[in-house]
Write a structure and sequence with these properties.
Helices cover about 50% and strands about 5% of the residues. It is built from 24 helices and 7 strands. The two termini are about 30 Å apart. The protein has about 525 residues and is mainly α. Helix 3 packs parallel to helix 4, helix 5 packs across helix 12 and helix 12 packs across helix 17. A 3-stranded parallel sheet has the order 1-6-7. The structure holds flavin-adenine dinucleotide. The site of flavin-adenine dinucleotide has 29 residues, from helix 10, helix 12, helix 15 and helix 17.
């Protein structure tokens, strides 16, 4: 038997998201006979990916290997393209069954289709399981007449008809593995070792301590810790959490869910247990609601063609975004001159996680709010730097924040000054991530350029020399941008009027592996 996980795309010279089917197969949602794991690692790392790569190892591979050892198995990491590696393995290991977790990302669908076809050619039985999401996404789309629901309310109505998500299945035990042997050679470390930083040409000298250590054990520990806070869980309302608290005001379970260290279903049912018999908040703002947002974007990503792009994406407003490499670099490198924005981007670069509303602030600033840069550029930066980088959630949320899809109140723009003040008047968050500004009095910490020269001198930071001037005048540019957005929306209405099919929603075009396999079977008949 062979179970595989393989999720790694090459894009813009950066590797990302070696996500985790394996973890889920192993820990909770599906039991399969797990002998080995195969990860297709085709890494071409840029400088900024270095910390991502370390985290990938920490979050995913090492703890998985440890857990598999407890089941008398090991993690086998193979280098190469799946279409080259698999056929060799099928023969070499005399594989009879191949199991994997269904993955809805277009890259994965096509990869899994290729591997499935190869397996069939080699007489290998293929078994897959839907478990990365709460529901089978194809079922949601089917229930909504072949279209992805475009509003949360519609999504809620659909999942209501499907009933509660499936409960997770307990993790495999030694008993489950009793008839299974993993032939582990003495050369295991040489042939199948977890890739090291050195292997991908990266320097390990400057590595920082992990703020969010990886693995299932840590995920469950974090989950337990939060679930013990029953009052907090029951009263959780996302809009009332803070983007700039010094320690996270939400669960930070996203990296674990993304990497499959924590099953979304386990998370869901633990919440249900906590809610039992108590008054509690409800979707969309509750923690159950957050998991449904995840489901919402996954469904959209499957049902909407070209989901991670503006062009060719039928629900995405077509906007005449500017190309401005200088602005983009300033945003990305925390040099916009707006301390709140720069502090968030610094936290992102240093820790790989930022609060949802902090993501709102920087995403709005980059796109419709201030810099008028295409959300796809922000998506790329997030994909590279976020520990929880997830293709569907990243694309969906960027479309929301740029008011390109799902959210249309483009006239509501976040202020890079006032927004942060609401929850952190003193600017302690800014002081933490931009220590250069720490001596500024609270009055000027969000707008240091307004401080008299004497105060800047006393703070040891001269704006324009030690810290940049703001790259745009927010009050002016944001008003201008609202007008530009108005035009884009007006054009959208005209286009929709000319093309009624667009108005009615989007027919599902992408084919799932399940559909493809069914079609193939039918052809054979
Ligand atoms: P909690 O509030 O504790 O929520 C619990 C879980 O619900 C999260 O772990 C996550 O799995 C899910 N969830 C919460 N909010 C959302 C949401 N808005 N959309 C979908 N699922 C949600 N999240 C990612 O996991 N990966 C991404 O690549 C990603 N990119 C984003 C890009 C932008 C521009 C924005 C605005 C948001 C993005 N999000 C992304 C969504 C959200 O910000 C994070 O899921 C959340 O902040 C993670 O922190 P948490 O685990 O403490 O969330």
């Amino acid at each position: 038997f062979l179970s595989f996980t393989s999720k790694c795309r090459q894009r813009n010279n950066s590797c990302r998201n070696v996500r985790t089917t394996a973890m889920k197969l192993a820990w909770g949602t599906h039991i399969s006979t797990i002998v080995s794991r195969l990860i297709h690692l085709n890494v071409s790392v840029g400088k900024d990916v270095r910390h991502f790569f370390v985290r990938t190892q920490a979050l995913y591979m090492r703890p998985l290997d440890c857990s598999l050892r407890k089941l008398d198995s090991r993690l086998f990491v193979l280098r190469g393209k799946p279409e080259d590696v698999f056929p060799k393995l099928f023969n070499k290991w005399k594989v009879t069954k191949l199991t994997y977790e269904y993955d809805t990302e277009p890259y994965s669908l096509s990869r899994d289709q290729t591997v499935t076809a190869l397996a069939k050619e080699h007489g290998v039985e293929v078994i897959y399981s839907v478990s990365h999401t709460l529901y089978d996404i194809d079922r949601i789309i089917e229930e909504n007449n072949g279209k992805a629901p475009l509003t949360f309310i519609r999504m809620q109505a659909i999942v209501k008809t499907l009933g509660p998500p499936k409960r997770p299945i307990p993790a495999p035990t030694m008993e489950n593995m009793k008839d299974v042997k993993t032939p582990c050679s003495e050369n295991h470390e040489k042939n199948y070792a977890i890739p090291t930083m050195e292997e991908v040409g990266q320097d390990t000298a400057a590595l920082e301590e992990e703020k969010f250590p990886g693995g299932e054990q840590e995920a469950l520990r974090r989950l337990d810790e939060h679930m013990k806070r029953t009052g907090w869980v029951c009263n959780f309302e996302k809009p009332h959490t803070s983007p700039n608290s010094l320690s996270p005001s939400t669960t930070v379970l996203s990296p674990y869910v993304t990497f499959g260290c924590l099953s979304a279903r386990t998370f869901w049912w633990r919440l249900t247990d906590v809610y039992q018999g108590k008054k509690h908040s409800a979707p969309p703002v509750s923690l159950h609601g957050q998991l449904l947002w995840r489901e919402f974007y996954y469904t959209a990503s499957v049902g909407i063609p070209n989901f991670s792009k503006m062009e060719g994406n039928p629900v995405c407003t077509q906007v005449d975004w500017d190309t401005n490499a200088e602005y983009l670099a300033a945003w990305r490198e925390a040099r916009t001159g707006f301390p709140f924005i720069d502090a968030i981007m610094t936290q992102l670069r240093q820790e790989g996680w930022i609060h949802h509303l902090a993501r709102h602030a920087v995403a709005c600033f980059l796109t419709r709010g201030d810099l008028w840069i295409n959300w796809e550029e922000g998506q790329k930066v997030f994909e590279e730097l976020l520990l929880d980088g997830d293709w569907a959630l990243n694309a969906g949320n960027w479309q929301w924040l740029s008011a390109s899809a799902f959210f249309h109140q483009f006239f509501r723009v976040y202020s890079p000054v006032a927004f942060g003040k609401k929850t952190d008047k003193n600017g302690d968050y800014i002081k933490k991530y931009l220590p250069l500004l720490k001596k500024f009095p609270a009055q000027y910490i969000y707008e240091p350029w307004k401080a008299p020269r004497s105060i800047q001198q006393a703070a040891g930071c001269i704006v324009g020399k030690d810290y940049p001037h703001p790259i745009v005048q927010h009050e002016v540019i944001s008003k201008n941008n609202i007008q530009r957005m108005k035009l884009a929306y007006a054009k959208r209405s005209t286009d929709a009027a000319e093309s009624p099919s667009k108005k009615q929603g989007v027919k599902r075009k992408s084919t799932s592996v399940i559909d493809m396999m069914k079609k193939k079977k039918d052809r054979k008949k």
